[in-house]
Amino acid sequence: MISLLALGSSVTEAANQAEVDRSTIYLWIKTDAVFVAELNRERQERQRALRARLAELVPEALNGLADLLKPDVNPAVRLRAIMFVLQAYRMPGGEVVGPTDPETVERDHRHTEAIQRQSDFFDSQFP
Questions:
Q1: Segment 95-126, tens digit of pLDDT
Q2: Within a domain: 38
Q3: Which of 34, 89, 100, 125 is most buried, most CB within 10 Å of its CB?
Q4: Closest to 85 measured CA to CA, from 107, 104, 103, 68
Q5: Pick from 113, 111, 108, 96: nearest CA to 33
Q6: Residue 26: inside a domain, yes or no?
């Protein structure tokens, strides 16, 4: 089930495959630090594998892109290639998955809950 979630399956799909109610998975995500840490580990591994495969394609892709930047290429195509290069250069390093250590996940959950309690308190005092 964790593998399915890490691959991008919906909670409903993963729950059906694991033969559990989807509310159970949501509960685990909210309260089970070990489950969340393992899910984050799987997601990180998936990202590493995808990045490794993409890295193999980069040299050929860059050569093709460089060909599109030559002056004899159609100006509209050349402009799109230039815009792509500039946009790609500004891209962040990738999706942040989250902690893979259960203790850190638990600490983050407690912190989020404390902030929510504080917000609820202020909302009740100053409607």
A1: 678 899 999 999 999 999 999 998 888 888 88
A2: yes
A3: 100
A4: 68
A5: 108
A6: no
CA-to-CA distance for 102 and 29, rounded, in angstroms? 12
Question: Residue 72 — φ and ψ, nearest 5°?
Answer: -85, 0
Position 86, amino acid: L
**DSSP letter string over 55-111?**
HHHHHHHHHHHHHHTSTTS-HHHHHHHHHHHHHHHH--S-------SHHHHHHHHHH
Residue 57 lies in a domain: yes
Of 31, 47, 34, give the one whose Cα is nearest residue 2: 34
pLDDT in tens, 5-63: 998 899 999 999 999 999 999 999 999 999 999 999 999 999 999 989 988 988 898 89
**Number of domains observed in the structure of the chain:** 1
In 3D space, the residue among 56, 36, 53, 50 whose CA is nearest the CA of residue 98 turns out to be: 36
